[in-house]
Amino acid sequence: VEDNGRLAGLSREEMKASLKTLRDMASRLGATTRVLRERKANSNSVKNKNHKRIEDHNCDRRVAEVLVTKVRKGDRDDQESVTDLRLAVVGSQDAGKSTLLGVLTQGELDNGRGRARLNMLRHLHEIRTGRTSSISHEIIGFDTNGHVLNYAEMTTAEEICENASKVVTFIDLAGHRKYLRTTLLGLMGYSPHHVMLVVTLPLNEAAQEHMALCLALRLPFFIVVTKTDLGLFDHKQTLVELEIAVRAQGCNQELILFNNNDNEELSRHYESNIIPVFAVSSVTGAGLEELTNFIRDLSPLESTSSDDEPGTCLFQIDETFRVAGLSEPVLGGLLVKGAIAPGARLLVGPLPDGEFSPVEVLSLHRNKAPCCLVRASQSASLTLAPCNKRSLNPSLPHLRPGMVLVSIADHPRATVFFQ
Fold first, then answer.
1. Which of 369, 352, 415, 12 is nearest to 167 (CA)?
2. Where does the Tr-type G domain lie (predicted)?
3. What band does 78 get if pLDDT is binned at 50, 70 and 90?
4. Residue 220 confidence (pLDDT) above 60
5. Distance between CA atoms of 275 and 90, rounded to whole angstroms?
6. Is the pTM of this model over 0.90?
7. Which domains does the chain have, with CATH numbers?
8. Radius of gyration for the alpha carbons in the chain, expressed in angstroms and rounded
9. CB-CB contact of 348 with 356 (8 Å)
10. Which of 169, 287, 299, 272 is nearest to 218 (CA)?
11. Rounded mean pLDDT of the chain?
């Protein structure tokens, strides 16, 4: 770069050496680099010893724009991995799911008129009606001392992930029966480790349906009774009503109302023989501390040894979206088995003709923060590029939800029907 800001550019050898130096510097600082674009300099003229500009026809000088991103501390080789927990939130409409999540993630109590849920809603019609119709994600973190990290203390998700030893991803699902298919997609496609069933008294049919879904899918769940500040909450009556609903679904687990600080013992046994019940208020804050401590002590399901086998990979694509500045779409989904790193060459498909197309992974993000490795049972978003860049028009095939990314060694085949 000249004194007046003009981009003089570098030769190919100088550019290669400069990029290598930049990569080495970023690696030592716990960051990664990616070349966003590279082009020829505006002028191929250079200066001689007398500071006179002369044409240099033998030197093809180029300039490059490089993105330097800080890597999550759990993805560095010298750091212990950050624990990721996926927690789906289900319940009937008007049960207070989005309001409760808004209080947990923002650190501010609700005003009784739904102010806390505004940050959880994605569409204008959701804000107008107060009903969630899509799947939204929010996170909170916990540091090594068990202190909660939310947007009351941190300004961005990247900052939460950088300082947290455990990250909890809330998957807010629709409660209206009209959007039941969307709820099923969240429970099955996103593979949550646990489910938080939010109910309000008296129980309605939708709450019992969501309870039946958790039991049918064999997802461990706990119950949160909201709106206790309205004066309609009675401990004994609540347990009786919930026990009747659970027994009607053929479940013999014991329900325990959690209102003390013995959360470690409860977290250890809840998946096997008991269903914890919490009574909270998003307006007064009653019961929120006990609920937060219980979520802190929850642990994700351990992945089997076959999930981390080297050379295998299965990434299911749940959504595709566009980001400003990127020509290719961004893919979001869950890594079922294996591991993915930038630069990995995979197959995407099946395409309409049943074939799979070779692609290369350009970048990875988890919890809105760039990372250099995604492991089995982790959700992530990634960008792809076609492997055959020497063709006249290298481009990705049309990507849609439902496709998968698999290893080349798996030799996948598309099947029309099963016998």
1. 369
2. 86-298
3. very low
4. yes
5. 15
6. no
7. 1-42+57-70 (no CATH), 83-297 (3.40.50.300), 314-407 (2.40.30.10)
8. 26
9. yes
10. 272
11. 80
